[in-house]
Write a structure and sequence with these properties.
Strand content: 5-15%
Low-confidence stretches: 1-10, 166-183, 862-874, 905-911
Helix content: 40-55%
Shape: elongated
Pfam families: DUF5682
Length: 935
């Protein structure tokens, strides 16, 4: 570059600089305004004088896309430098297999060098057809001899340079007023959004000033009215100068630190100089696509002539996974704080501008909805860029051209919105369509517009059609967005999916469904008629375990320990939840591998508990059928239980270990070794913690009940494995609770151990019922006894007895005050213990109403007593013969019931309450004997 070429551009904007400086001196008291205005001109001068042509863009801007198409067809660059994370470059080649909009994603679940609370890390870069970056990508990939180079910082550096402390959210990322929530706005999840060209002022007062005087509601409408529309048909030089000027203005008025943006600019210029030096490419044949704010950069590394160095730090040890996920207009709006419908309106503006200008945009070959383009010839020559002329002076001094009213377009919109409103339940008519048409023109005139914009039309439709209520799922605002372009949702093609996602779709092919659709589809599986569908059923249950509930929802059928359905019905929406399926592909090759890794990770985390490990064992058996993995996870459960110092998860532990023991007892191999170790470790563990749990305020009755249920329910197994029963007796005797519910649990435990007889327990409860000082807390005692039915099932009749005595003897003035508390407490156990209590009451009370008049409670003093003296007459019948043949069984049963059995040598018949029961109910005994095959 010659000296004259360097000086000429600087003199180009001299007149504009002097004019702005004079205006600032005339209207501003300080020199700050003058410095900002002249600095903007200097930034434009510097950017346009750079030998490497800089193309400033705005994120998802139709004007930027149109200017990009024109410039690419004119310049035909050989190298395109694009402001995008450099490690996303391999994903660009897969865009041809997708339907836009989609988002490039980098994902890391296991992180190194970052705070642990940041995990998982995720970054998305959405791409739409109307964006300038997509036009550059399509041109570079489909034109022979053109190289596409991504020069922005890597995804690892995005988080390296991120602040490590919580800061206030950026106002630009907050949804604008008027943004409506949409169910599709969560396609990006919690990922960090990467955009090219963030052109929104970070100066709140300036933004509010622009919105007020522009007579618009939000920033997206202001940008469309005062930037997009004027620049849509502007020439290339005007477009560049205006965009750099806007970027410079917002950059200079930005509040807060700009260190990260400046480091990004240093990073990009360093990468571009490295590439040019390595390849020897002529800079005149290159194009640098970046955000308008970055084009106005003032870092010392700016430009090819700069010799300033910038040290790029190495990446961390974090392993990143890359893929494409579906995106949508609403997801982009939610990600970058745009108004609802802004991207849809931009897409409609893009399509209209293409029709008017008859431009042919660049589209990737093979992409859905495109025709295969003819092969383009390789790049041979590249014209040198012309010296920039001052176009800013004319653009800033000339009022915007007013587009003539397109009555045909506005009339079509008005008719279509009335028709669409009727389809969605509104009572819209031709009169409403006319009103929308006239109101749109009126609103545009009030806002100094000759031609109504889509935002004017939307306001008019809401005013004229929206009445007192919304009759359907969509309001008029949403209907206008659908009419003007709708919320387009992208789709990742099969070839661009990770191996896991492709494997899932291949294995579900026998269902005969098109799982790429975003609608719910019903799958019917008759596993008895078509056994080959069993593999599909297993996979669907895995998907239900790993994906959100809407991806695979069972309508009929269940899957648990030892159970499988013979018929199943599913609602499948994998197309709607494609993003989650893609992210599963970052964790493994098959879905079984992903679940296995997650189960291992869950039990080895720092906060893992025995309940978590038992849940992992259950999942390994139910979903994977892996006994080897279950043994590994079970051994970890034993270690976790022995190391726990809390009993908060005791109910969950008891529920899961009971289910697992029942399952393993039904298998041919029996109990595994880890189950035996878990029972022995749990027996010793809960015996040790029982006295403390009884008196601890932070331990509730549910936890104590679960501990007693574990100790009493698994005592026989624990004793057979070498545990000492004395340890349990000592633990109960050392417990001294003060809470009423825990006292009742302690009495139940002592009764179960034989340390407290039933008459003594009944006497204590009768004394409490007679003591007016204890009556207000008696519902808590009842709650404790109700919970004690689990560890002490023989206590069920007594619980019915104390409830009956309470309702039968207490006066209403005593009973009614604590009745609500009792009902509330019992309601918490309605699913587990109350049904047991009701069944026991049904066995105790007479079945008919007439019998209730003559019924005497068995605990009443006037009830017939059970004979306790041995009888000489022995009952006869098949059951007596069977008991005489097997005396050991009868002795064990009588001992379990708490009675002493006496056998007579002459008749070999036990003289106990058991024999009396046989006399009273001979039919039941004969039926039992017939069932057992005895005569």
């Amino acid at each position: 570059m010659t000296v004259s070429e360097q000086v000429a551009p600087a003199a180009t904007f001299a007149a504009l600089r002097d004019q702005l400086a004079s205006a600032a001196a005339a209207f501003a008291e300080t020199g700050v305004a003058g410095d900002i205005l002249t600095g903007m001109v200097d930034d434009v001068d510097r950017a346009l004088s750079e030998r490497l042509e800089i193309f400033p863009v705005c994120h998802h801007s139709p004007a930027s896309g149109l200017a990009m198409v024109r410039r690419l067809r004119e310049k035909r660059p050989q190298v395109v430098y694009l402001e995008l994370c450099e490690d996303l470059r391999p994903l660009i080649d897969e865009l041809s297999n997708c339907t836009l909009p989609v988002a490039l994603q980098a994902f890391a679940s296991r992180i190194e060098g970052f705070p642990a609370q940041w995990a998982p890390l995720s970054i998305v870069a959405p791409i739409t057809e109307a964006s300038a970056e997509y036009q550059a990508i399509a041109y570079a990939l489909d034109t022979p001899g053109v190289e596409l180079v991504l020069v922005d910082r890597s995804t690892d550096h995005v988080f390296q340079w991120a602040p490590r402390e919580d800061e206030n959210p950026d106002p630009a990322t907050e949804p604008e007023s008027g943004a409506a929530p949409d169910p599709e706005s969560g396609l990006h999840g919690d990922a960090v959004g990467i955009e090219i060209g963030d052109l929104r002022p970070r100066f709140d007062e300036l933004e509010q000033y622009l919105l007020h005087h522009g007579k618009v509601r939000h920033w997206s409408e202001w940008w469309d009215q005062y930037v997009e529309q004027p620049l849509a048909g502007a020439d290339y030089d005007t477009y560049r100068q205006v965009m750099v000027m806007i970027g410079s203005l917002f950059r200079r008025l930005r509040r807060g630190s700009t260190a990260v943006d400046e480091d990004r600019e240093r990073y990009m210029w360093t990468r571009m100089r490295e590439h040019l030096a390595a390849t020897g490419t002529d800079p005149d044949r290159c194009l640098y696509v970046c955000g308008a704010a970055h084009a106005a950069s003032r870092v010392e590394q700016f430009g090819l002539e700069s010799r300033a160095e910038f040290e790029i730090t190495p990446r961390t040890e974090t392993v990143w996974h890359y893929g494409l996920i579906p995106s949508s207009h609403s997801a982009i709006e939610a990600q970058f704080g745009l108004a609802g419908g802004a991207v849809s309106i931009a897409a409609a503006t893009w399509s209209k501008a293409l029709r008017r200008s008859k431009l042919q945009p660049f589209r990737l070959a093979g992409q859905a909805g495109t025709k295969k383009p003819a092969k383009r010839k390789p790049i041979t020559t590249t014209p040198a860029p012309a010296a920039p002329a001052d176009r800013l002076s004319g653009f800033l001094s000339t009022p915007p051209l007013l587009d003539p009213l397109d009555e045909a377009e506005l009339l079509e919109w008005s008719v279509d919105i009335a028709r669409l409103a009727r389809r969605n339940g509104y009572l819209a008519s031709t009169a409403d369509a006319i009103a929308v048409f006239e109101t749109s023109i009126l609103l545009a005139g009030m806002r100094n517009r000759t031609r109504p914009t889509p935002y004017d039309f939307q306001d008019a439709a809401i005013t004229c059609i929206e009445k007192d209520r919304v009759p359907g799922r969509r309001d008029v605002k949403r209907l206008c967005e659908i009419l003007l372009g709708g919320d387009r949702i992208g789709q990742v093609g099969y070839a661009a999916l990770p191996p896991l996602a492709r494997d899932v779709l291949d294995r579900l092919q026998p269902l005969g469904l098109d799982l790429s659709k975003r609608t719910l589809q019903r799958a019917l599986l008759d596993l008895r008629t078509d056994p080959h569908l069993a593999s599909c059923s297993d996979l669907l249950w895995l998907l239900r375990r790993l994906l959100p509930s809407g991806a695979a929802r069972p309508i009929m059928g269940s899957r648990g320990l030892g159970e499988k359905s013979i018929q199943e019905s599913w609602d499948l929406g994998l197309g709607r939840y494609q993003r989650y399926l893609v992210e599963l592909g970052y964790e493994g090759v098959t879905i079984e591998q992903v679940l296995e890794q997650r189960l291992r990770k869950a039990v080895n985390e720092s906060g893992a508990t025995a309940a978590v490990a038992l849940a992992a064992v259950e999942d390994a058996l139910v979903f994977l059928g892996s006994v080897r993995l279950a043994d590994e996870l079970g051994s970890r459960a034993v270690e976790l239980l022995a190391s726990e110092r809390s009993v908060d998860d005791a109910p969950e532990v008891l529920r899961r270990i009971r289910a697992l023991l029942d399952y393993f007892r039904s298998t041919a191999t029996g109990l595994p070794d880890w189950c035996a170790r878990f029972v022995t470790a749990g027996y010793a563990h809960y015996c040790t913690l029982l006295p403390t749990a009884f008196v601890a305020d932070d331990t509730g009755p549910a936890q104590v009940t679960a501990m007693l249920g574990f100790l009493f329910g698994m005592e026989n197994l624990a004793l057979s494995l070498g545990c000492d029963h004395t340890q349990l007796e000592l633990a109960v005797q050392q417990s001294h609770p003060e809470a009423p519910a825990k006292i009742a649990l302690l009495w139940a435990a002592r009764y179960q151990l034989g340390l407290l007889s039933l008459p003594e327990l009944r006497h204590r409860c009768d004394d409490m019922l007679a003591n007016p000082l204890i009556l207000p807390t008696f519902p808590d005692y009842i709650l404790g006894f109700v919970q004690a039915m689990d560890p002490a099932p023989t206590l069920k009749p007594f619980v019915v007895e104390i409830l009956s005595k309470s309702f039968g003897t207490l006066p209403d003035k005593v009973l009614l005050p604590w009745l609500p508390g009792l009902i509330t407490n019992l309601r918490n156990h309605a699913a587990d213990l109350v049904p047991t209590l009701i069944r026991e009451a049904a066995r105790t009370f007479p079945p008919t109403l007439p019998a209730l008049d003559t019924w005497t409670p068995p605990w009443s003093a006037s009830a017939p007593s059970v004979p306790t003296t041995p009888e000489t007459a022995a009952p006869s019948g098949p059951l007596t013969t069977m008991l005489a043949a097997h005396p050991a069984t009868c002795i064990a049963l009588a001992t379990l019931l708490g009675y002493e059995t006496i056998w007579q040598a002459t008749s070999l018949t036990p003289k106990s309450p058991v024999s009396i029961l046989i006399d009273r109910y001979p039919d039941a005994g004969n039926a039992l004997a017939a069932t057992l095959g005895s005569n």
